[in-house]
Amino acid sequence: MHFIISGLQIVLIDLLLAGDNALIIAMAVRSLPPKERRIGIICGAGAAVLLRVGLTFIAGMLLNIQYVQLAGGLLVLWIAVKVLRESGDPDHQAPTEARFWEAIRYIVVADITMSTDNVLAIAGASHGNFGLILFGLALSIPFIVFSSNLLSRLMDKYPWTIWVGAGILGKVGGEMMMTDPVVVKHLHPSHFTSYALQAVLTLGLILVGRMWTARKEAAVQAAVE
């Protein structure tokens, strides 16, 4: 019974914490053609799980290394800005292969920092049972693949969801930066400061996305006229 309860806890943890990784993957591969996008999602999800297997043994140490969370948060914000700038552009200058590997690099680097909390939660729920740890990590693959596919399709059908996704990444990036050991040590941010930064980044990215979209629509309309 204890084993079953631990397994159910891990399933719930995967459902709750796989969303950030899925959103990063969906945003990173959005500029790819459909076929390459599917491959990118599968490769990104696979890389995320492989990283989690490796991070299982050093996750606690990783959270204490200065600048790791800070760099990860900045990368997440950069991905959000990059996707917002590319949204609405039907053609991209870079070749498909170059954009594919660029997306994979973004996913891998972001996963190194974003997967740490997930790994720690699964390790805690498994109570050291390595079989349960592997079960939780393997189970996260279909969750991430399904969520990434769903999110990328929503972004294609409803462009405004890109702004929402960028806003969520703004919150994630702000939270990661505020929890970096060097920031905590030297700035001692309060909960209010952390939440305020997350709110500013969230709203800022949404507004920037709307502004860029409006400019592109105006430019297209002017070209037609």
Quick structural overview:
This protein has one domain (2-224). It is 85% helix and 0% strand. The chain contains ten helices and no strands.
What does this structure look like?
- The longest helix is centred in the last third of the chain and has 34 residues, at 191-224.
- The chain is globular and about 70 Å long.
- The protein has ten helices and no strands.
- It has one domain.
- By secondary structure, the chain is mainly α.
List keywords for this structure.
225 residues; mainly alpha; 10 helices; 85% helix
Largest sheet: none
**Structural domain tally:** 1
Gap between N and C termini: 69 Å
Which range best describes the helical content: under 10%, 10-25%, 25-40%, 40-55%, 55-70% or over 70%?
over 70%
Calculate the mean pLDDT score and round it. 77
- Multimeric organization: single chain
Number of helical regions: 10
Q: Tell me the radius of gyration.
A: 18 Å
Bin the strand percentage. under 5%
Pattern of helices and strands:
HHHHHHHHHH
Beta-strand segment tally: 0
Q: Which spans have pLDDT < 50 for at least 5 consecutive residues? A: none
**Category by helix and strand content:** mainly alpha
The shape is: globular
